[in-house]
Amino acid sequence: MILNAILNGILYGGILALLAIGLNLMFGVVQIVHFFYGQLLMIGLYIIYLLVVGMHIPFFLACLIAVATVVAVNLLSHLMVVNPLLKAPLINQFLAMAAVMVILENLCLVIFGATYKGIPIILPILKIATIYIPISRLIAFVGSMFFAGLIYLFLKKTYIGLAIQAVSQDREIASFMAINQRLIYIITMALGAALAGITAAFFVPIYSVHPDFGGPFTVISFVIVVLGGMGNLPGGFLAAFIIGTVTMIFSTLLSSEFGAISAYLLFLLIIIVRPQGLLGIRART
To answer: Given Cys at both, which of 36, 51, 61, 128 links 101, Cβ 3.0 to 4.6 Å?
Structure first.
């Protein structure tokens, strides 16, 4: 039972890692609290449901359209809400992002209703000795690791990726290098939203969607990002697997409620002892 919990925790952590990478990129570059990131995931799931069930569009094409829609929503919010608040106080940014979150949730409630929506995709469970592996989670894990690898190569091997890292590390020096920071902001916001849309595609066989679906994933993504160290991609990657494994172990031994409680308690304990996160650098005073 413990082995099953650990394995499923690793699979769950891999999915969370992809979300954390997207949120970490946007915070590291744009440095704004993206408080409706989970709602982008929710929108992606709703779009896939609408296209597949309502319009009978092939699943993979629906996933591509969903990713594009999520990117468009995030870029629109960036131009209309984020961009004017880049130099505003943190509380203004936080409240504006929270307002967008409420708007998106209520729009989905009006359009789709409060009932759960899902696509009936039933995948088998792989059995190895006494260990059971849901194929849906295994596909999501492998896909998440694949796209995480692509992001790593993009950041390390391309000019735009290096420019994103430069802006994230030091905006002033990046401006001296003739890097168009506004363009980098837009590219980063699009990239972060695309990762949320891709995660939504992987979630289709696992979850049903409802208007409150995105909230918990926004919170857990922020917990992972802060636990790993704000803006630190390797730290967020490590934290995702820790949170995923702890959640699944205690969910298996006790209940899903205790799984969530244990993950947040672990976060509180670590962040009190090490405020900068697992791999973060302590700020100089």
So the answer is: 36
